[in-house]
Amino acid sequence: xxxxxxxxxxxxxxxxxxxxxxxxxxxxxxxxxxxxxxxxxxxxxxxxxxxxxxxxxxxxxxxxxxxxxxxxxxxxxxxxxxxxxxxxxxxxxxxxxxxxxxxxxxxxxxxxxxxxxxxxxxxxxxxxxxxxxxxxxxxxxxxxxxxxxxxxxxxxxxxxxxxxxxxxxxxxxxxxxxxxxxxxxxxxxxxxxxxxxxxxxxxxxxxxxxxxxxxxxxxxxxxxxxxxxxxxxxxxxxxxxxxxxxxxxxxxxxxxxxxxxxxxxxxxxxxxxxxxxxxxxxxxxxxxxxxxxxxxxxxxxxxxxxxxxxxxxxxxxxxxxxxxxxxxxxxxxxxxxxxxxxxxxxxxxxxxxxxxxxxxxxxxxxxxxxxxxxxxxxxxxxxxxxxxxxxxxxxxxxxxxxxxxxxxxxxxxxxxxxxxxxxxxxxxxxxxxxxxxxxxxxxxxxxxxxxxxxxxxxxxxxxxxxxxxxxxxxxxxxxx
Length: 480
Prior knowledge:
By secondary structure, the protein is an alpha+beta fold. The protein folds into two domains: 5-266, no CATH class; 317-474, no CATH class. 16% of the residues lie in helices and 27% in strands.
């Protein structure tokens, strides 16, 4: 389900996928969402047991063959393996390698059974009669488990569809406790090893070299290399994130054959977005507010009752600004990491959030908050989503800059009201939902109401209830 920077880059070399989106705002937003996704997920992580981790030390090739055991001492190696403990020493640095995560003891059929129950994104789309983003169909017994890690309870697995067009990432905290479920293309997975973009530990990638039996990874900020778990077709994983649930950046990836000889060496390269220039005379242009004369209570055409719009947050604008200042500070620190263009003058020009920023839209209940803030110069927006009162809890955040036409780039989390529209209805799997409209912006749920949904249809109606707008909108799957 990811549409992050790796996917956008991979599509440039993969003409079977959709064309590369070259809108720079879109690229930056998607890239930074890949950085931020884990922060929401940290609220519900589990840890691998010590016994499970120790059990993984003696695994040799860690391949997908369920009957394979530890191998003997290799010859002609460029890494040193202790045959008694399975521990590896990196001959280039002399450092001991952090062991690979354990191979899951679950049979492939059980892995597929557990993961198929939580392949909700596809099921919801089918149920709501929306077109799916891929043609692979739901996860079932025909899918291939290319790599699996964990114990009898927790699980991290990569699954390949029968037509090899989709890789699903399935991470579970327990037999009936899904942690995350995503679908993406093999090209996206492969690109994760090519570009220096922050990843979640749960994200797998692919090493494009035949015969790779061991993979060592140097991670930014870590003193010792890690060994990844190698599966079939070059797919690898670092396992269930557990207490180590954090964003990582790959500094170097090395692959070794069964004899311990190095056959692959990759240093991920940074991605630099094209420099942007924006006419300083252009400020954001929002649609004129229109008061409905005929207030819709049912969906025109179907007669289905409309689900109420998400509530306006009870927080004052000052409280919203104060909360969002906390994650904004972290965001600016993140701009200097991860390979995404850190010299984005358009975004940096607005400076940090302050009380001078306009709270254009706010929704939520209790401690939950989603807000859209506009910079004093009306050239930058900040989208702030928080599940707790401070940035010490789960949050999500992004920024975007005004385009030459006076509009903000299309966002997967909220949108700008089209001209002439007084009411907006969004087709969600739960039913047609009224959008909350505020100051020329609209939103359809706490995070857009898009958990497990890839795209929706947006219907706009004028003051008399006549449809004047009907367009699909891509979403970015997120947590509520």
